[in-house]
# Entry
Amino acid sequence: MLEAARNLHARNIPIITLCSGAFIAGNAGLLDGRRCAIHFTTRDEFRLLFPKAIPVIDKTYISDGGIISCPGGTGIDLAADLIRRHCGALRMRKVLKYLLIDDQEGKKSPGNRRNAGEELDVYDNDLVRKVIDLVAPPISRTCIFR
# Structure
């Protein structure tokens, strides 16, 4: 597993560590000289095992050098930011609403920064549009709302 992590990192494929997954990245040597978000209860052990890493206990997640680390319990913040980055703010809010999670504007998490001019009212994706176009007519023909 350690060699696989090293190979992925060497190919510039982002690696996400959740909770104790930071220990795997640390054992692979991927956190040397990098900041990583860990749970406060593991800080002392982490420092002993990985003295070249820079453990951080007051962030919901950190991205440093292709390694995205998250203490675990705050994984939804990381997930929301990844959705926002790759699919837009509107899709992120829809996912959070679906999961019954409040999208709290102004959270200190890096996942709530807005880009100037970011379109918030429209979500459009070619693949999603094709699927909607494919299933919408049959659904509308078979559903009767009274």
Summary: The longest strand covers residues 15-18. Strands lie at 15-18, 35-37, 54-56, 62-64, 67-70.
